[in-house]
Amino acid sequence: MSFFWIGVLLLSLTAGAQDYSFEEFPAIVKRPQKIRVAVPDFQPLSQLPAHDNSCARLTGFMREVVGMTGLLELVSPDAYPALALPGEKEDFETWKAINTDYIIRGDAALLDEGRYQIEFRCFDLKQGKMVLGKRYTGEPALFNRMVMRFMDEFIGYLTGKKGALDSRIAYVSDASGRNEIRLVDTDGSNDQAITSNRTLNLSPSWSPDGRYLLYQGYRARNPDLYIIDNAKGKETKLYGASGLNLPGKFSPDGRSIAFAREGADGNIDLYLISVTGQELKRLTSASSIEVSPAWSPDGKLMAFVSDRAGNPQVYLLDLSRGPESAGNPAVRLTYEGDYNSSPAWSPDGQYLAFAGRVGGQFDLFLIFMSGENRSPRRLTASAANEENPAWSPDSRFLVYDSNKSGNYDIYLMSIYGGEPRKITSKAAKERMPAWSPQDES
User: Fold this and answer.
1) What structural domains does the chain harbor?
2) Which one, 1, 27, 39, 410, has the greatest CB density within 10 A?
3) What is the CA radius of gyration of the chain?
C-alpha cells in the first residue's frame, strides 16, 4: 500500500537535468490597468562615506519590486525630469506629462557604524500631494526588506488589502547532500537553514500565526511529523507511530493538523490530530490511498489526492458533514490528466491550485472554487515541469518549484501574469515551497 506514496516521493525528488524553454504564464485573473510608478534615484539625507552604494541599491531594488507586483508598471527612468532640490516644490505637471500616476521617492542617512535611516515617500499626482510616508532603521542587510515592507503598504493603500512581499518562504533543498528545510525572503535573499540533521526532511507547512513549521522528518529512521517553534528554535516530534506518516497542514484556526498515515490495515488515509499530538481522528475510509490535505480558509472543506479512481486525482471532503465513514463520501474535482497532486487553496477561498501531469509533464492548473464552473484551467504549458504550488497570504502570488533551469528551483509569479521570478539559484534541487503567513507587525 505504500508504493503510491513512494512513487510520489520519487517523482518529487528526482528529475533529469535538461535545458528548457519557458513560456510566459497567462494571467489567472483579469488584471486592472497597470498603475504607472516612477522611482527617481534615492538621495542621501546626510554626507555618506565614499563608495557608499546604499542609495543605488535601494533605487535599483525598488524599481525591481515595482515590476514584481503585477499591478504596477515602472515609468522608464530615461524619461524622468530633473529632480527637485531639497526645499523645492515638486513639479507634478512635468511628471504627469510622461504619464506618471505615482512617484516613490527615498532618502538614506547613515546614523552610526553600519545602521541607516531610510525614508520612503509616495506622491499621488492626481491629488498633487504625498499620500504615504514611512521611515525604517537598520543595517544594509535589511534594505530589501524595508523596500518590500513599504511596497506592501503602498499596495494596501491602492487596493485596501496589504501586500505580502515582506514575508518568508520555507522550502526543501538538497544542497548539503541531504534534504533540509530552509527559509528565504521572497526576493531570494536572507537564505538560511532551519534543519541540519542530515537526514530526509520534507514538505514544510506553516501554522496560521507563522510561529511554527510542520514537516516530515526521518531523524528516527521512520517518516514522522515534527514541529519547529521558530520563536524558540525548539523542535518536537508531533507524531511518530511506526509506518508511513505523511506531510500535513495546520487547520485555519491552528488547533489541529490534517495528515496522512498508514493504518494497521496497511491503507493510507487522512487523519486529524490536535497540535499536542492527541485526539487522532480518521477522515477518509475508502480502500485506496489518500494524501496531500489542503484546508479551505474557513476550515469547512478539505481538498486531497486519492487514487480511488485508479490514478491520483483531486477530491473534496465536506468536513462539516463528518468523516467519510459517516456516509459523507468525498466528491471528485479533477477528471483530466493521469496524475493530479499537491492541491493548494488560496487564502481568499477563491482558487484551488494543483499540479497535473499531461503527456508526461507536470504543469500548474487552477479551479475557481467560488464559481459554478469548476473545470480546471491550465496555467502553464512549457517544456519544464511546474509543481507544488503554494499561495501568498494576500492571494496575489503563487510560489512553486520548476526545473526550467535544469535542476529544480523555487519560482514566484503574480496572478496578474508576467514573467515568473526565480528566487533560488543553488546548484541543487529546491522543492516544496510554503509561503509564511502575513506579518501584521
Assistant:
1) 3-29+167-435 (2.120.10.30), 35-159 (3.40.50.10070)
2) 410
3) 23
Identify which of 126, 79, 134, 127 has the alpha carbon closest to the alpha carbon of residue 104.
134
DSSP state of 320: G
DSSP assignment of 256-268: EEEEEEE-TTS-E
What are the distances in angstroms from CA 438 to CA 168, 394, 395?
9, 8, 11
The residue type found at 207 is S
At residue 100, the pLDDT reads: 96
Please give the angle made by the CA atoms of 380, 383 and 389, to the nearest 5 degrees. 40
Question: pTM higher than 0.85 for the full model?
Answer: yes
Q: How far apart are CA 57 and CA 164, in angstroms?
A: 21
Q: Is the model more confident about 48 or about 174?
A: 174
Any residues with CB less than 8 A from the CB of 215 and at least 6 apart, and which? 181, 195, 201, 202, 203, 204, 205, 225, 226, 228, 247
What distance in Å separates the CA atoms of residue 223 and residue 244, rounded to the nearest whole number? Answer: 6
Q: Residue 97: what pLDDT?
A: 94
Three cell numbers, residue 320? 462539516
The neighbour count for residue 178, using CB atoms within 10 Å, is 15
Read off the C-alpha cell for 18: 535538461
Q: Are 102 and 122 in contact (CB under 8 A)?
A: yes
Query: Residue 310: phi, psi to the nearest 5?
Result: 115, -30
- Cα gap 130→102, rounded to integer Å: 9
- The 10s digit of each residue's pLDDT in 272-330 is 999 999 899 999 999 999 999 999 999 999 999 999 999 999 999 999 999 999 999 99
> Torsion over CA of 4, 402, 299 and 336, rounded to 10 degrees?
-60
The bridge status of strand 35-38 relative to strand 102-112 is: parallel
Q: Are 429 and 408 in contact (CB under 8 A)?
A: yes
CA distances in angstroms from 63 to 128, 151, 178, listed in the order given:
22, 11, 37
What distance separates the 2 farthest-apart alpha carbons in the chain?
78
The letter for the amino acid at 236 is: T
Distance between CA atoms of residues 43 and 52, nearest Å:
12
201-206: strand order across its sheet: 201-206, 212-217, 224-229, 234-239
132-135 long-range contacts (CB < 8 A, ≥24 apart) are: 132/157
Give the DSSP letter of residue 142.
G
Dihedral sign (CA 145, 146, 147, 152): positive
Beta-carbon count within 10 A of 156 CB: 14
CA 5 vs CA 220, 223, 245, 310: distances in Å: 19, 12, 10, 14
Task: Please list the residues that pair with 124 across neighbouring strands.
Answer: 102, 129
